[in-house]
From TrEMBL:
Residues 1-167 form the Flavodoxin-like fold domain. This is NAD(P)H dehydrogenase. The keyword Mitochondrion does not apply. It holds the Pfam family Flavodoxin_2. Keywords: Oxidoreductase. It comes from Lacticaseibacillus chiayiensis. The keyword Oxidoreductase applies. It comes from the Bacteria.
Amino acid sequence: MKTLVVVSHPNIEKSDTQQFLKASAASLSQVVWHHLDANLPFDVAAEQQMIQKADRIIFQFPLYWYMAPASLHQWLTEVWVKQFVYNAHGGLLTGKSLGIVVSFSQPESAYQLGGRVGFSVSQFLAPYAALAEKTGLELLAPLTIARFANQNDTEHQQLLIRYQQYLTLTHPDNAEEQAQWFIDRLQADPDTKIMADELAAQTDEIGRLRLTLHELKAGESE
């Protein structure tokens, strides 16, 4: 799967969050990192070609006043035009998926009813759901990054894993795909191959148990 990471950030060199994510994606051969602010003015034909080549498109940005920075809006206005992303018959990007990686400086708890912000992240991102519907994209649940500067090393390692899986897995929230992701990486290292084989065996056993449970539930309903 080829993934295009579209990054909107006006001062990316000073962003610890974006520099961490960029480094996390550097080893992924099928991932293209594309910083919009460094490519102004846009070559529309080149931008559209990048979109056509991608199987997954990621919008990546910090929340600025509860929305994306200006470069993402400009890019959508100039590049995502009629007859390229949609026409009278529907969306033209069917078969591709859209992910959103959004960072913010407040805790996750602030983005809920009764929280400091009082609105959910999903509410702020609703226009992108409409965009996906209009263009035929399959929308993934967003990957949210709260208070990166306050995270410890363990949390950063967890974020690296979540991010790489989000960019590369067909279904990033699927437990079996996540397990296989770990197995593949462990098997690539001779020193950890035994661990990979054990994890694979345990994953197979979990799959068999789930199938048995499903059959039992089906029998109860008959």
